[in-house]
Design brief:
The chain has five helices and eight strands. The protein has 182 residues and is α+β, with helices and mostly antiparallel strands.
Length: 182
Protein backbone atom coordinates (compact mmCIF):
# COMPACT_ATOMS: atom_id res chain seq x y z
CA UNK A 1 0.00 0.00 0.00
CA UNK A 2 1.55 3.31 -0.99
CA UNK A 3 1.98 5.87 1.77
CA UNK A 4 -0.57 8.09 0.03
CA UNK A 5 -3.25 5.46 0.71
CA UNK A 6 -3.07 6.02 4.49
CA UNK A 7 -5.26 9.15 4.39
CA UNK A 8 -3.05 11.02 6.82
CA UNK A 9 -4.64 14.45 7.13
CA UNK A 10 -2.73 17.51 5.96
CA UNK A 11 -2.82 20.36 8.48
CA UNK A 12 -1.96 23.93 7.67
CA UNK A 13 -0.67 26.67 9.97
CA UNK A 14 0.56 30.16 9.11
CA UNK A 15 4.17 28.98 8.64
CA UNK A 16 3.95 25.20 8.42
CA UNK A 17 2.41 22.24 6.67
CA UNK A 18 1.87 19.05 8.67
CA UNK A 19 1.75 16.15 6.25
CA UNK A 20 2.51 12.47 5.89
CA UNK A 21 6.15 11.54 5.94
CA UNK A 22 7.74 10.71 2.60
CA UNK A 23 10.58 8.35 1.88
CA UNK A 24 12.75 11.33 0.94
CA UNK A 25 12.34 12.71 4.49
CA UNK A 26 14.46 9.87 5.86
CA UNK A 27 17.91 11.40 5.27
CA UNK A 28 16.87 14.61 7.01
CA UNK A 29 15.50 12.53 9.89
CA UNK A 30 18.92 10.88 10.14
CA UNK A 31 20.64 14.25 10.37
CA UNK A 32 18.20 15.40 13.07
CA UNK A 33 18.48 12.25 15.21
CA UNK A 34 22.26 12.24 14.94
CA UNK A 35 22.69 15.91 15.86
CA UNK A 36 24.01 16.32 19.44
CA UNK A 37 22.03 19.58 19.77
CA UNK A 38 18.87 17.49 19.39
CA UNK A 39 19.81 14.23 21.10
CA UNK A 40 21.29 15.77 24.25
CA UNK A 41 17.75 15.76 25.69
CA UNK A 42 17.17 12.15 24.60
CA UNK A 43 19.69 10.61 26.98
CA UNK A 44 22.55 12.10 24.95
CA UNK A 45 22.70 9.25 22.48
CA UNK A 46 22.57 9.67 18.71
CA UNK A 47 20.45 7.04 17.04
CA UNK A 48 21.79 4.69 14.41
CA UNK A 49 20.42 4.73 10.86
CA UNK A 50 18.78 1.40 11.70
CA UNK A 51 17.03 2.84 14.76
CA UNK A 52 15.92 5.90 12.80
CA UNK A 53 14.55 3.70 10.02
CA UNK A 54 12.53 1.83 12.67
CA UNK A 55 11.14 5.12 14.00
CA UNK A 56 10.32 6.19 10.46
CA UNK A 57 8.36 3.00 9.77
CA UNK A 58 6.63 2.97 13.18
CA UNK A 59 5.26 6.39 12.33
CA UNK A 60 3.23 4.89 9.49
CA UNK A 61 2.18 1.95 11.62
CA UNK A 62 0.66 4.28 14.19
CA UNK A 63 -1.71 5.65 11.56
CA UNK A 64 -2.66 2.16 10.38
CA UNK A 65 -3.18 0.64 13.83
CA UNK A 66 -4.42 3.60 15.87
CA UNK A 67 -5.86 6.06 13.35
CA UNK A 68 -3.48 8.76 14.58
CA UNK A 69 0.25 9.27 14.50
CA UNK A 70 3.11 11.53 13.59
CA UNK A 71 3.25 14.23 10.96
CA UNK A 72 6.23 15.52 9.04
CA UNK A 73 6.49 19.26 9.54
CA UNK A 74 7.42 21.27 6.47
CA UNK A 75 8.46 24.91 6.51
CA UNK A 76 6.21 26.74 4.03
CA UNK A 77 8.83 29.40 3.26
CA UNK A 78 11.53 26.95 2.19
CA UNK A 79 9.80 23.58 1.69
CA UNK A 80 12.34 22.10 4.12
CA UNK A 81 11.55 19.19 6.41
CA UNK A 82 11.71 20.79 9.88
CA UNK A 83 10.79 17.91 12.15
CA UNK A 84 8.05 15.69 13.49
CA UNK A 85 5.02 16.23 15.73
CA UNK A 86 2.01 14.24 16.74
CA UNK A 87 0.58 11.57 18.97
CA UNK A 88 1.79 8.02 19.31
CA UNK A 89 1.75 4.97 21.51
CA UNK A 90 5.04 3.29 22.39
CA UNK A 91 4.02 1.27 25.47
CA UNK A 92 6.56 3.03 27.68
CA UNK A 93 7.65 1.08 30.70
CA UNK A 94 7.42 3.99 33.08
CA UNK A 95 6.45 4.31 36.73
CA UNK A 96 3.72 5.05 37.43
CA UNK A 97 2.28 3.32 34.36
CA UNK A 98 0.40 5.46 31.86
CA UNK A 99 -1.60 2.60 30.34
CA UNK A 100 -2.83 3.14 26.81
CA UNK A 101 -2.85 6.93 27.05
CA UNK A 102 -1.59 8.50 23.81
CA UNK A 103 1.72 10.34 24.07
CA UNK A 104 2.43 13.65 22.40
CA UNK A 105 5.84 14.48 21.04
CA UNK A 106 7.86 16.83 18.90
CA UNK A 107 11.38 16.76 17.48
CA UNK A 108 12.84 19.48 15.28
CA UNK A 109 16.10 20.12 13.49
CA UNK A 110 18.30 22.42 15.58
CA UNK A 111 18.07 25.25 13.04
CA UNK A 112 14.32 25.44 13.75
CA UNK A 113 14.72 25.61 17.55
CA UNK A 114 13.65 28.76 19.38
CA UNK A 115 11.35 30.07 16.64
CA UNK A 116 7.98 28.78 17.89
CA UNK A 117 7.70 26.05 15.25
CA UNK A 118 7.20 23.23 17.76
CA UNK A 119 4.41 25.09 19.55
CA UNK A 120 2.71 26.12 16.29
CA UNK A 121 2.87 22.60 14.87
CA UNK A 122 1.90 20.83 18.10
CA UNK A 123 -1.10 23.11 18.66
CA UNK A 124 -2.36 22.24 15.16
CA UNK A 125 -1.79 18.53 15.81
CA UNK A 126 -3.63 18.74 19.14
CA UNK A 127 -6.64 20.46 17.57
CA UNK A 128 -6.91 17.47 15.23
CA UNK A 129 -6.24 14.81 17.90
CA UNK A 130 -8.72 16.33 20.36
CA UNK A 131 -11.42 15.58 17.82
CA UNK A 132 -10.05 12.29 16.48
CA UNK A 133 -9.31 10.76 19.89
CA UNK A 134 -12.79 11.48 21.21
CA UNK A 135 -11.78 13.35 24.32
CA UNK A 136 -8.86 11.22 25.52
CA UNK A 137 -6.21 12.74 27.74
CA UNK A 138 -2.60 12.72 26.50
CA UNK A 139 0.80 12.86 28.15
CA UNK A 140 4.32 13.83 27.19
CA UNK A 141 7.70 13.33 28.82
CA UNK A 142 10.50 15.87 28.92
CA UNK A 143 14.01 15.91 30.37
CA UNK A 144 14.05 18.35 33.33
CA UNK A 145 16.83 20.44 31.77
CA UNK A 146 14.98 20.80 28.46
CA UNK A 147 13.41 24.14 29.33
CA UNK A 148 12.35 24.93 25.73
CA UNK A 149 10.34 21.69 25.47
CA UNK A 150 8.80 22.27 28.88
CA UNK A 151 7.61 25.64 27.58
CA UNK A 152 6.17 23.98 24.45
CA UNK A 153 4.32 21.47 26.62
CA UNK A 154 2.89 24.23 28.81
CA UNK A 155 1.87 26.39 25.83
CA UNK A 156 0.04 23.34 24.47
CA UNK A 157 -1.93 22.87 27.68
CA UNK A 158 0.14 20.14 29.36
CA UNK A 159 0.33 20.38 33.15
CA UNK A 160 2.98 18.81 35.42
CA UNK A 161 1.85 15.31 36.34
CA UNK A 162 4.72 13.39 37.97
CA UNK A 163 8.48 13.04 38.14
CA UNK A 164 10.11 9.71 37.40
CA UNK A 165 13.17 8.02 36.00
CA UNK A 166 13.08 6.73 32.43
CA UNK A 167 16.05 4.91 30.93
CA UNK A 168 18.01 5.80 34.08
CA UNK A 169 17.50 9.54 33.58
CA UNK A 170 15.30 11.99 35.51
CA UNK A 171 12.13 12.62 33.53
CA UNK A 172 9.14 14.91 33.90
CA UNK A 173 5.70 13.73 32.83
CA UNK A 174 3.01 16.20 31.79
CA UNK A 175 -0.66 15.49 31.18
CA UNK A 176 -3.17 17.32 29.02
CA UNK A 177 -6.91 17.00 29.16
CA UNK A 178 -8.53 17.42 25.76
CA UNK A 179 -9.99 20.75 24.83
CA UNK A 180 -13.75 20.50 24.70
CA UNK A 181 -16.31 23.04 23.64
CA UNK A 182 -19.55 23.34 25.64
Amino acid sequence: MPITDLNIPVLDTPRLILRAHRREDFETMVSIWQDPAVTRHFHGVSLSREDIWGRFLRGFGMWVVNGYGLWAVEDKATGDYAGTVGAFEVKREITPPVGDMPEAGWTFAARFHGKGYATEAMQAALRWTDSALAGRAMFCIVAPENTPSIRVAQKCGFKPWFETTYHEAPTLAFKREPFTTP
